[in-house]
Amino acid sequence: MDLKEKDTRRTKPGPANKKVGGARPIKQKPADANAKPAEAMKSKTKQDRLLYIILLVVFAGILVVVSMMMLRDRHVKKTAEDIYQDLGSGGGSPGDSEPPYIESGDLTLSASGIKVPDKEPDWNLMKETNKDIYAWIYIPGTNVDYPIVQHPDDNGYYLNHNLDGSEGYPGCIFTENYNTKDFKDKNTVIYGHDMNDRTMFDTLHDYEDEAFFQENRYIYIYLPEEVLVYDVFAAYESGAEHILSSHNFLNDVRYQEYLDGVLKMRSMGAHFREGVEVGAQNHMITLSTCIDLKPDSRYLVQGVLVNEAALGQPLP
Questions:
Q1: 135-157 pLDDT tens trace
Q2: Which tens digit of pLDDT belongs to each residue from 215-262?
Q3: pTM for the structure as a whole
Q4: Which region, left, alpha or beta, applies to residue 211 given φ > 0 means left and ψ of -120 to 50 means alpha?
Q5: Max alpha carbon distance in the chain (Å)?
Q6: Per-residue DSSP letters for the chain?
Q7: pLDDT, average across residues 277-284
């Protein structure tokens, strides 16, 4: 056999080694190899779309609930404001509707040259509105011009209930049943919310200004038969302790220790009136409200009763 012919037969490509255009043969994938990833991607897209719809529905539901709560709170607050206006609360900005000052007929006040704002609370209307109303507080130069209430059983009730019984802000100006309602306790503590719209006790914070503290010194408490006048002697930031359960005001020694501690305080922003005598023989009030961003602190404004004889307990 010719060697050339033999070599040609050896290198002749067979069907298994046939090349196309010099390239290697391409292996064909099964028909379902590309279908599986496409189906998986399609399924994931459906899941993402479903999740998006669910989240959208949840977000819309939350938005509706929040909007309804805001509208409800706004309605409750507006109703509360209308009730206060009907009862004679000044509202607005300080000075907008300040009443004229008159001689009260109180000898102590007359001797001190102190006149009383001519306010005449409608006690019958107030009792019809809410039987827990028993006094009225007015502080010229501020927006504090409200009835005072005391719930017979639940000391926290008026923190989040209004005069008409509705639940929510702004609540009421109130005392707890630790105190009597005749202001004959040595220290009557009156509470009110620090509202952002300068209602309730928010404007007590104006006393942080030294000039305001000096210029606005009297607090007036109206009772059905008397007007009590308190001289503001201290305004300062304090802890959130419960004053009436933390101090013994029935004991004159302990009461004097409490007063000494207050008058020795020299924290930043604290103001004290020089020349005002305050001792264990005196009656006082403490106005307490919150401080923004300080949940463990309270802002206190304290006044000593000027006309002690109005309580039927003249000074010895």
A1: 999 999 999 999 999 999 999 99
A2: 999 999 999 999 999 999 999 999 999 999 999 999 999 999 999 999
A3: 0.76
A4: alpha
A5: 153
A6: --HHHHHHHHH---GGG--BTTBPPPPPPPTTTTHHHHHHHHHHHHHHHHHHHHHHHHHHHHHHHHHHHHHHHHHHHHHHHHHHHHHT---SSTTSSPPPEE----HHHHHHT--EE-----HHHHHHH-TTEEEEEE-TTSS-EEEEE--SS-TTGGGSB-TTS-BSTT--EE--TTS-SSS-SSEEEEE--B-TTS-BTGGGGGGGSHHHHHH--EEEEE-SS-EEEEEEEEEEEEE---HHHHS-TTSHHHHHHHHHHHHT---TT-EE-TT----TTS-EEEEEEE-TT-TTEEEEEEEEES-GGGGT----
A7: 96
pLDDT band for position 20 (cuts 50, 70, 90): very low
The label of the residue with tokens 């006044």 reads 303
Q: 71-311 maps to which CATH number?
A: 2.40.260.10
